[in-house]
Structure formats: C-alpha cells, structure tokens
Amino acid sequence: MTDTSTRLADRALIRISGEDVRGFLQGLVTQDMAGVTPETPQWAALLTPQGKALFDFILWADRDSILVDCEATQREALVRRLSIYRLRRPITIEPVEGGVHWSPKAGQGVPDPRLAALGYRWLGSVEGDEASGWREHRLRLGVTEGVEELGQDKTLWLECNAGELGGVSFTKGCYVGQENTARMHYRAKVNRRLVVTPLGEPGDRTRIAYPDLGLMVELRRVESLGDALMPQWLAAALQADAS
C-alpha cells in the first residue's frame, strides 16, 4: 500500500501557460529553462535587480506549460509579481489546484533538484495526509528555502547557497538580478552564507528560529560560521572558495 502521508501542506502550484512561456521565464528567473523537463525540475528564484532573493520555487514542465511549486503563503504575491513582467504577452499566470508531495525514499517522483539527499518530490492531488519530518530533514542537510529563511529583498541569491544547490545558471542569458549575481560568482565574492545552526540566542544575523527542532537559520560571514551545521556540500564549497 502506498504511504499517503506525503503531501507538503506549505506548498502550492501556479500554472504559466500561453505563447513562449519558456522565453518569458528565461528572461526573469535564475535558472536556464532548457533544463526544465518532466524528469528534471529545477530550483530557481526571482530576484531584485540587485540580485537579492524575492521568491524561490521549483519549476516543473507540464507539456507546453510550466508549473511553479512555491510557498503556499506567497502564491498570490508571486502571481502578482510575475504578472508585472507579462505586459501584453498572451500568457496566463494563475493559481491551480494540486499538491506537492515528498518522500525520503525512492519509489515515486524524482530526486529533489537541489540535493539528492533531500529525497524525492512529485506533483499530484491535494488529497493525502501531511508529510512529517520534511522541515527537519531539509534543515539538517543545511538547505534553506522560503521568505522566512531566505529573507525577502534581504539576501543575495548566492548567499542562499544557490550556486552549490543548483539554483542558478551561469551560462544562460540575462535575467533580473543577473549582473550582480554573475559578478559575485566570477570574483568568488560570496562573503556571507545562510546556514543552519543549533538553537541559540537570536541576534541580528538570525532569520528564523525553530525551538521545536532545536535549530535556527542565520546569515553569517564565512569566517565566522562557528557552530553552523556543516553538511558535505557546504564544506566542499567553502574549501573550494578558500583554495
């Protein structure tokens, strides 16, 4: 019997359809739309012109449309923001019914595009019980997401570890926030990192605390990471930056 306790209740879907949807998104988001296929969803973001994260999401191909797997609390705001860029294009951007599902084990779905260790993800119905353990599983692997953890218009996209977790293409053309993002990448100037740490006294570096998990998310300078959790992917990135 299939486990029905897989639904991520804090996620929702947006459908973008119409004429040249991929071209529309190619000039907006951080990810190369050529890599978005039914088998390979991609993590991406919409940035400010200065390269700071506004919204992060996962893009899924659905025939001629693109489905945006986003935070449920930010869905309406993201629809409004994307609609600003639509101008007169014959493109529809609308919330749609559907559920985002997750399992830590193989058997259904595709590997999370950010990190295979996160588990498997797929789109389905809104039926089924809420998945348990996702947030702690994600945070223990050092992966942050959403406006409460990333901040909104507060954190540069590369400070969100987007380069290491596959949230940006450095070979695609221009997009909103591309200039500063590319400059940071090629100059290796990622001086701060969003990290997950053991719960402590919140300070001005703290984004959000999770007392029930004994964890919090902070933006720290790379030379002052202290007791931050150090998953293998982050340790490798910091070693490469230092060499």
TrEMBL record:
Transmembrane segments: none annotated. One of its GO terms (biological process) is iron-sulfur cluster assembly. Keywords: Transit peptide. PANTHER family: TRANSFERASE CAF17, MITOCHONDRIAL-RELATED. This is Folate-binding protein YgfZ. It comes from Sphingomonas kyeonggiensis.
